[in-house]
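Appendix B, Record 12. Input sequence as logged:
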Amino acid sequence: MAGQNPYITKAKVSLPTRPFKVTFFIEETKETKDVMIDPKKIPYGRTGEPGSLMDLAEAAGIEIDHACGGVCACATCHVYVTEGLSTCPAATDNEEDMLDTARAVTPESRLSCQCVPNGTADVKVTIPAWNKNLVKEGH
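Logged structural output:
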């Protein structure tokens, strides 16, 4: 599944108007990847909200597990926004409901399919080591 979930309230987002950087820390491999975001290319794909952390990560070849296809129907894409969280709109009630089912939730927790930075500052994101579907095929 990919696209939009017609059963949830769409978040009110402001897409970026200038380039900005997202730094992804992949906890499993201890790897850090800096990604420059070109707002003219949003959406990069069709997974998650346009301009969401998931959309940006997928375009850069960074894997974030998403069992529902990025439509806010699960919590497998749970990440931590460790810097720049204020550039993202508040989580909707639907996102909060899904986060209630996630493990190790903190105040920095977001679903990467729903969290859309507005580009007014750089963002740092940690992808937890347990953000992997161990029965997934491929790789």
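Residues 53-59 form the longest helix (7 residues).
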